[in-house]
# Entry
Amino acid sequence: MNQSFERQMRDALADFTKQHEALRKVSTDVAALTATARSHDRAVEVTVTAQGEVTALRFLGDKHRTMTAQKLAADVLEAISQARTRVGEQVSALMESVAGLGSGVRSDGFGGLDLDKLLEPTWVEDLGKGGGSGRG
# Structure
């Protein structure tokens, strides 16, 4: 291997490692996200995870005691929906922080190196030269 190719491969591996670590951090950060929201009448408060799982449900004050079951259920669903929307916005913001990863490789990050040629199995070349039966 020539030195230029070795340098390109080292640079590509270093870039890949950096991107992998960034994605792992985002994954960890997303897993830790929560959001809390209240119903419009402030009778119900709900906390959800990034996966939308309800982790806390609180009835604030005593207003819930005088509400109909239908109204209370509507408030709970409203708070859940708002909390899920908020946590979704947080997830989107984190994902945007890594949205461009890998773009250097896709946009000729290997300086014109023909990756298809590099990765082509040598037995294909052997077949083209009439040099054997190949693999398979």
Remarks:
- The longest helix spans residues 3-32.
- Residues 18 and 123 are 34 Å apart (CA to CA).
